[in-house]
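Forwarding these from the shared drive since the link keeps breaking.
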Amino acid sequence: GEILESPGVTEAQYPENSQNLGWINSYMTPIAEMLKGISPYFGTSICASPGGVIDEILYYTRGFDTILESSILMMSFIIASWLSINYTMNRKAIRDLAAKELGLKTAKYFYATSYEKLQEAAKVIGFPCVVKPLMSSSGKGQSLVREEGELQHAWEYGISGSRGDIKELIIEEFIHFDSEITLLTVTQKDGPTLFCPPIGHVQKGGDYRESFQPAAIAPEHLAEAQRMAAKVTEALTGAGLWGVEFFLSNENGVYFSELSPRPHDTGMVTLAGTQNFNEFELHLRAALGLPIPC
């Protein structure tokens, strides 16, 4: 887009959370102005009001190198810590943290930097298996591979769907789960970690389609998901709302899947009044250190 010649008025979706509306009047820096000529996704404007469009920076800068992206987000007052951004934008970092450092149950997995490495890993994992880019979103580049003959396409699709310059894929065992949930988890500056009622969601072809809250799950599965969510968010540090995803199997229990350090797409259901505060209000309150009545 072009730099605005006159200030643009920003209207708050939730005016009770933003007493002073911000003004969009320029790109952040000359570098941002240069980037906007390369891609419409770069050069995101900033609102002066708390909780304005800061999260949009997180979304639209995912094509950058992770370290550079982390630096940009820090300078833009992003809620989560540098550590959380650096880990969660890369599946390799967050998976190794969860499985190897924290000991959380995850699907078996390997990394592949070439098609030959992918073939070798698939022989160990077995079929069906899931192939994903290390950095992507909304199912882009993800494949369910049912037999060896589909590996070549999965490799090419995964690399083409990868963000940034990372040319490495993760291959996972296929978990025969009964349901999947997002557990919105709120970490506070001075207060205990809070959990929203579990959100059930449905994906088709790797894309999120619908969500509902509360999801009916076994009490022991909920307790285990809360334990895992608390452990991983504590390790990453920061105050705000996290979207922590899990696979649930009646036979094999709870598997940690992924984590986002921000309001989650499946959490949009909270805008329908499914709980006392929606996910954006919770994110803002935790970031500003405001009380969160349960």
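-- next protein --
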Amino acid sequence: PDEIDATSDSDGDESTDGTTHGLEGWMVDQAAPAEAAGMVDDASSPDVPDTGAFAPMDTPMVTDPDAPTVLIVDDNADIRAYIASCLAGRYHIGEAVDGLDGLDKARALRPDIIVSDIMMPVMDGFALLTALRAAPATQAVPFIFLTAKSDDLSRQKGLKKGVDDYLTKPFDVDRLITRIGQIVQRSQVYQNKLNAKIGRDFSDRLLPKDMPDEPGYRTVFFSRPKEDGGGDLFDWTRAQDGSYLFTVGDIMGKGLQAKFYAFSFLSYIRSTVHAMLRETLSPAKLMSRVNEMLI
């Protein structure tokens, strides 16, 4: 959108003097958060840990490039680091310091799910969610709110705006990890079904609906693609002299992307062949012309 409302009428995590509440709202142990998380020694037990207390220590890195990406949006660096350390090893992690930064990161990273606070400077969580849902590229990204506000009004507002889940601080870390996994899996299942439907539509367009009908001849076409198939294409054209030109091709790759390229390529081949049939019926000359235009 051209203009984005960076504020909302929501109540938040901040006190009346503008300061941010301590971390007791989200830690595993409200009385001794750092020791409960096992990240600082027993000699240190502040109510609010130092900024570096939750920096990941020897956390495994994700090596699978296809692993889901989680974008964490929170103006509290300790909370971001803590959540990131809990998710490390199974997800790619992106971080944003406020809603506006989260909007930019979401556009760049295309995350599989976003975990966001509500009350943040510059742009709050509600405004971020509204902006994401208004853009076609991000409107379907799953979204989880983490907030100290537990009132029904805030919860209903989030649900009306399309949030997928709403966890109140102090939140249970295991529940957060479980909900992220469930929502990401559900989204992937939906996306796979959508890709399969689109893929079948492309496959139908890459193969002829009928075959030549000539007296004394029986023509049959059979195709059994493996799994979702790839970029296989087949077409035929009848020339003015009654002869037939058959086009068989294969686009490198598998899945929906290969089918998309095959569909574009087949449309190009059809138009080229139909135009050249007025000049020649030689398959060699037709192929030479196609190669010249492609290479």
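Residues 33 and 265 are 60 Å apart (CA to CA). The longest helix spans residues 173-206.

- D.
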